[in-house]
Amino acid sequence: MLAPHPFGTEITVQQLLALFSDKSQWEDRYRQLIQLAKQLPPLPEELKQQQLELKGCENRVWLGHQLNEDGTLHFYGDSEGRIVKGILAILLTQIEGKTPQQVIEIELMALFDQLGIHQQLSTSRSQGLDSLVSAIRQTAESCL
Fold first, then answer.
1. Residue 84, exposed/middle/buried by CB under 10 A (0-12, 13-18, 19+)?
2. Which of 45, 76, 77, 85 has the most CB atoms less than 10 A away?
3. Which residues are named in the active-site annotation (predicted)?
């Protein structure tokens, strides 16, 4: 497996909901995003290829994938920005190990609303989130 990470396997959506449930202030959610970013292993330099770099993000972001033999997807990525990397970790938690059809059916933005993050993002970070979600959907569609 290329670039393994704990999101979607060791760290689940339910655990994210629990982590953020007692964070009423944006600063606390911000710190939690940074903690998630620290848990996402850095992407090896050889995987930071130009074709994996997403456009439309405030920070440099790489998103790659592989289709596993069992028909599920493994996504991996990295970002130079801590908040964006935390956002990526939340997305990876939702999509890791899912089939392309399951990924398409997930309302990826809903979790960000539940965690109280989406409404707090700056315009540029919100656009970056949109770019990540779009890239994930396009990848899943291309794997069908």
1. buried
2. 77
3. 57
